[in-house]
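ARCHIVE CARD
SHELF: 3
SLOT: left
DATA:
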Amino acid sequence: MKRGIVILTNLELTALSNLARQNNCTQLDLLQKIKPVANQSAHYEQTVQFNAEEVETLLDYMPLPGSTANNSLESSRTRLQQFFTNN
């Protein structure tokens, strides 16, 4: 299974975590990976190791590109899509 690293800001982790919970994500490992880092600024960057299935799950939860004003989700989408192009 394909694995790789994605660097996400705390703001992006918060957006992904909220999105996963809104979609009733039951993958506890994934929820733990995208948990924002406590006591860090919004722009603090965290390195997260994902497998392809986890990235696909997060991308599936996302609304259509441009259909949200949430810049954190849009930047998260870009970073997650790069997972497939860079690995």
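SLOT: right
DATA:
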Amino acid sequence: MFSLLLSIFLRLQISRFNEIHREKKVFQLSVTCTHFSFITEFLYSHIAAVLHSEFHVQEGIKELKNHLGSRDFLQYLDRRTNDFAAQFEDVSSRHTWSGIVSSVVSYVNAEIESHRSKNKACDKNITSILREVVKTAEERKKVAGVQLPLLKRAKKIFEHVVDVLEEAGAEFATDYSHLLRTHLLIVPEYCTKLQADVFEGLCEFFVQRIEQKRNEEEEGDGSMDSEDLDANVISKEEMYKSASTLVQLLKSYPSDIPSQYALRLLKFFATTLKTLKEDTKLPASLMLGLNLVLARNGIDCQSNSKEIHDDVAHFLLWAFKAKNARDKKLRDSLVTYARIQLKLGGLEDEKALRELAATLEKEIESSYLLVQQSNATSYDRGGDYDNELIMIMNIT
């Protein structure tokens, strides 16, 4: 309560200063900077106080969110962040976007510990606050030209995200996967701070979420289309988002993936695709992820390429049979997969080649027969779909 009163008092004082010195712009600017310096220190102390007192929790979060909506406060942080990047001696890191993020990370860690001791789940205010702050900071790049506002804390943010997901994944998965996918992994400079163990930890979290959902569905009714879910079970949409985040991790990670972990990823993608019989965004993401790892680490895992294809072949043949795969991104990924596997030797087995060729021939002949029908749709008349089938036929 003392902190709240202090905040109100500061606001009233600044309001009086602004009224008295309305015509003195230089002085007013000085007062404004001093005001926001006070506010920044107040926020820092307010969030840090959560480590010691539960009383300040909701008050501190509300105060922070209120100031994230203040244009003047955002502009103040922009200036101080740029000044700090230019190594001005009188700028404290607390008065920058990185400083605010560091305080929020400490706050979330303290809240997780507090809720765990009481066997309580964290509410939305806690799970979403870091995403909101990072989103606001990243938006300042376009609005105010602030360059890489979180670069100095990128490593810490990635480490925090993997630690939280491993400890309290179910509560934070939605917000933190969105944070990774939308704000962090799309910035190459931030990704250079992503350490190998953190990268593997993040990948493994999303791999296990997809495996969990897949096992639940197969144990339910043997189908990947089961929607008999309770509140604690991962939804179909969450599984797709997990796959999308995993693919973004594979696209963005700038270093080499260790061979042993690359093989783990390849086997995960292959075994998951083996049981899939659906034309949705999920298999398209899984095929893209499989191709990314094959293209990157295929040579290292070449001895396992045939084993990988034995599983993927089930989905590959289903996808081209009766034109089950209508998603163009998925079909493109299947063509790319066939090209990569032929180079790696995964399709050298004569039986595998004959089986694939027979399926493709049948589908191409069926499509040409449909061309004669006046009521055939543009999709049924062939077009890109048949071109893709012929491409794989030529490859095989």
